[in-house]
Design goal:
The protein is of the alpha+beta class and 843 residues long. The protein contains 28 helices and 32 strands. The chain has a 4-stranded parallel sheet with strand order 2-1-24-25, covered by helices on one side. It has a 4-stranded antiparallel sheet with strand order 6-5-7-17. A hairpin with a 4-residue loop joins β8 and β9. The radius of gyration is 34 Å and the shape is globular. It binds one RNA strand of 86 nucleotides through α7, β9, β13, α11 and α21.
RNA sequence: GCGGCGGUGGCGGAACGGUAGACGCGGGGCCCUCAAAAGGCCCUGUCCGCAAGGGCGUGUGGGUUCGAAUCCCACCCGCCGCACCA
């Protein structure tokens, strides 16, 4: 017998070539929506709407080479895509590149290579590696967000939003990174006020910026979470980010200046306890209020200091409260009291109205401030049933009943009083119930080169004018100097900058900011559906066929931003009549990180595992299989080179046994192709067939719940059994079991399984229906009955599958070691679980 | 502080309320070999015992149950997200 040796470096390219040449994984938009398999098996009732499936992994940011996290993500998605195909569905499984953005540009600045060039190189490297991994991508739909064919439609979407009033420009205090020389989105600044990318301390600047009105969608983004199958923690993060609070808007009036100041509060029940009023340093009325008072100078100095503070300093709740009185008062609308106005940095301009009513008796922050400034603290809620000294002290933030408020409300439970007070305010025209959100509008302007140009022309006569659709794309000019200098490098290109106004034809200038890259990735999943369309962003029929995405896969790091923005775009585009669905991703799976020696891989730690090196050593199948085998895919997994060897041994054994078995069967599988299950069997043959059906059942179930690690373990068990029963089973039984093992493992290790299946049957495993477990084969005629006494296992005996409870009890009672523990005792209860166990409770 | 997730052998991890530790790694022993590599077979939670068998075991303490890693209560520890959001 010839020596059979598993050689992934021969096997993998060979099958990759077949798939590339035959364009196996391409799907068409005009294929009839019917089952791909001629004869759907029993239980294969895939509904009409289920016949198309869209499996999508988050598109990679091409920088350098793919890392191990990419391997995990695409190994995961590929397994799902293959499984869906084998269930008879058409599967859209595309790939693209999120190719604009700061990292590419920074890298370019460092190395002197133009971002267009370095990005193209990275993309080429990603393509090469993805192909070497053998992932089943429809390459005909490949895209990169930096291509004019793509960003033409990014610009079109921007203009649609602009026309709908959802893209607007305003002066705003924005976060400015002095190192990257650009404005940052709130989300790109960490909690301590550092630039997320370079770590520099962020400053504040006033600039005229483009925003997208995501706040209009706060409520729908919040409520829409109910209808999608996402991990609970991701939904929670999104809810926290949206930050919905119910409360009331209450108007406080400054009589001296004749101005109303509405505030938002979640606690209108504590209104009678408001003893002062605080404005944020950024509040536009602060200078005006202080003007002419003895505090004018102090207020100005305080505001200046506060504006120059970093978020790190300002965000610290622990530090002593600071502030300055403005020398004015406002009227508390519920009791007419005049309460002093302060300016203090613990109040944020971005949230609510930038001003608050302060209730030191029932809010910790207000209490801190009142203590520091010796302001009155009034209790207006008392505990119903004081639990300890804490309840009798202020601030008291729990529920209770009203006191010191007003005869109409005193004594009322505070929740009830809250509603009653809001109703009263409403009647009096002094306030109303209100919902407030933490979410802010999305700042998309970037003073950077490597991004999608904002398709706007600024005309002195006509104002802000959108570029007409037929003039799109506004191409990114090929400038020499793309170093950021505080304004966009695009402004340096005269030919780009100076245009004639699309409306009046007069001299005008282009907008020179580019868009945040999150804009590019907020709609790419739509473009895949119709990636080569040069007449429109998509044909609605194509979206109807594929959208929404059935299964989206990616890292948790995108739990908030990317996923929120994509949802926002979907809702906005639906409102504009371009889409007929509200949520882009029906189901989401978030994969865990791959670590090395327990910590995150990084160049500085020197613990980076390169996918290319692993594949060079053991092949793509092993690498893919290992990363899915090592643990549940949603959890972090530690990379172990020894563990990889174990999986390599397993695949090696699968292939070797298949090759040997095929040879013993005559090596003419292709002459008589096909696979059928041996019909009559007994003894070990039956045992092996049973194990095979057990594995079919197990792997299918595990795939449906993303338990890839146990699915692979089940195939390992099956292979161990095949190997163990090698000498005592028929060749046909072995052939059937091995081919089934290859078939079940194909979604994880496609090359070796395609090869093994071909050797054994002469057929293409990816064209085969997913195996069906035979119910009858899942049950055997006897099983091991567990015999317990007082819940402890004392013996095990063979029982017939059809034995009744009495028979089982007798069997158990007769077991030798059970008798020992029953001896001299009285049985007070007998528990029988047919198919499992018998438990005698004795005294 | 708030919210979420988790804690099981030497390690990664399995276990619809029903045999804890599947599968893999690591370790030990053996076979094949002149030798090695590769491969194959067996053992491997822990303590007592020659063995049969028994005791103890899923972060801690309680509870529910014939039976708890699993359900409930309290607590400890770890990770992640948010955090002066009125």
């Amino acid at each position: 017998m010839a020596e059979h040796r598993y050689d992934p470096h021969e096997i993998e390219p060979r099958w990759q070539n077949v798939w590339a040449e035959e364009r196996t994984w391409e799907v068409r938009n005009d294929e009839p929506s019917e089952d791909r398999h001629e004869a759907p098996g029993p239980g294969r009732s895939v509904g009409a709407t289920d016949l198309n499936s869209y499996v999508l992994e988050m598109l990679p940011y091409p920088s350098g080479e793919p890392h191990i996290g990419h391997l995990k993500c695409y190994a995961l998605g590929d397994a799902i895509a293959h499984y869906h195909r084998r269930l008879g569905r058409h599967v859209l499984h595309p790939m693209g590149y999120d190719a604009f953005g700061l990292p590419a540009e920074n890298h370019a600045i460092k190395t002197g290579v133009h971002p267009r060039v370095s990005t193209a190189e990275s993309i080429a490297s990603f393509q090469r590696q993805f192909r070497s991994w053998g992932i089943s991508i429809d390459w005909s739909r490949e895209l990169a967000t930096c291509e004019p064919e793509y960003y033409r439609w990014t610009q079109w979407i921007f203009l649609e939003l602009f026309r709908a009033g959802l893209a607007y420009r305003k002066d705003a205090a924005v976060k400015w990174c002095p190192k990257d020389q650009t404005v940052l989105a709130n989300e790109q600044v960490d909690a301590d006020g550092h630039c997320e990318r370079c770590g520099a301390v962020v400053e504040v600047r006033q600039l005229n910026q483009w925003f997208l009105r995501i706040t209009d969608y706060a409520e729908r983004l919040h409520d829409g979470l109910h209808e999608i199958e996402w991990p609970e923690h991701v939904k929670t993060m999104q809810r926290n980010w949206i930050g919905r609070s119910e409360g009331a808007e209450v108007t406080f009036r400054c009589e001296e200046l004749d101005v109303d100041y509405p505030v938002f509060t979640t606690r209108p029940d504590t209104l009678f306890g408001a003893t002062f009023f605080v404005m944020a340093p950024e509040h536009p009325d602060v200078p005006r209020l202080a003007e002419g008072t003895e505090h004018e100078q102090a207020a100005r100095e305080y505001v200046n200091r506060a504006l120059n503070e970093t978020n790190e300093e300002r965000g610290n709740a622990e530090r002593q409260k600071t502030g300055v009185p403005l020398g004015r008062t406002v009227t508390n609308p519920v009791n007419g009291e005049q309460i002093p106005i302060y300016v203090a940095d613990y109040v944020l301009m971005e949230y609510g109205t930038g001003a608050i009513m302060a209730v030191p008796g029932h809010d910790e922050r207000d209490h801190d401030f009142a203590t520091a400034f010796d302001l009155p603290i009034r209790r207006v809620i008392e505990p119903l049933d004081p639990q300890g000294d804490d309840d009798l002290e202020l601030p008291y933030t729990s529920d209770g009943r009203l006191t010191n408020s007003h005869p109409d409300f005193d004594g009322m439970p505070n929740r009830e009083a809250l509603a009653a007070i809001v109703a009263w305010l409403d009647r009096e025209g002094k306030g109303h119930a209100s919902v407030n959100y933490r979410l802010r509008d999305w700042l998309i302007s970037r003073q950077r080169y490597w991004g999608c140009p904002i398709p706007i022309v600024n005309c002195e006569r006509c104002g802000t004018v959108g570029v007409p659709i037929e003039q799109l794309p506004v191409e990114l000019p090929d400038v020499e100097d793309y170093m950021p200098k505080g304004r966009s490098p695009l402004a340096a290109s005269e030919s780009f900058l100076n245009v004639s106004c699309p409306e009046c034809g007069g001299a005008a200038q282009r907008e020179t900011d580019t868009m945040d890259t999150f804009v590019d990735s907020s709609w790419y999943f739509l473009r895949y559906c119709d990636a080569r369309n040069d007449q429109a962003a998509w044909d609605p029929a194509a979206l109807k066929r594929w959208m929404p995405v059935d299964q989206y896969i990616g890292g948790v790091e995108h739990a908030i931003l990317h996923l929120m923005y994509a949802r926002f775009f979907t809702k906005a585009l639906a409102d504009l009549g371009h889409l007929d669905f509200q949520e882009p991703f029906n189901a989401l799976f978030t994969q865990g990180m791959v670590t090395k020696d327990g910590s995150k891989m990084s160049k500085s730690r020197g613990n980076v595992v390169s996918p290319a090196a692993i594949i060079e050593r053991v092949g793509a199948d092993t690498a893919r299989c290992y990363i899915l085998f090592v643990g549940p895919p949603d959890q972090d997994a530690d990379w172990s080179d020894d563990g990889v060897e174990g999986v390599h041994r397993f695949l090696s054994r699968l292939w070797r046994l298949s090759a040997e078995t095929a040879e013993r069967a005559g090596g003419d599988a292709s002459a008589a192709p096909g696979l059928s299950e041996p019909s009559t069997a007994g003894g070990d043959d039956l045992a092996l067939l049973r194990k095979t059906h057990w594995a079919i059942d197990k792997v299918g179930g595990d795939l449906r719940r993303f338990a890839f690690n146990t699915a692979i373990a089940a195939v390992m068990e099956l292979l161990n059994e095949i190997s163990r029963l090698r000498e005592s089973t028929d060749l046909e039984t072995q052939r059937f079991s091995l081919a089934t093992a290859a078939s079940l493992l194909f979604p994880f290790a496609p090359h070796v399984c395609a090869d093994a299946y071909d050797l054994l049957t002469g057929e293409r495993v990816w064209e085969q229906e997913w195996p069906q477990a035979d119910e009858a084969m899942l049950e055997s005629e006897s099983y091991e009955l567990v015999c317990q006494v007082n819940g402890k296992v004392r013996d095990r005996v063979q029982a017939n599958a059809d034995a009744g409870p009495d028979e089982l009890k007798d069997l158990c009672r007769a077991a030798p070691n059970v008798q020992v523990h029953l001896d001299g005792k009285q049985v007070v209860k007998e528990v029988v679980v047919p198919g499992k166990l018998v438990n005698f409770v004795v005294r």
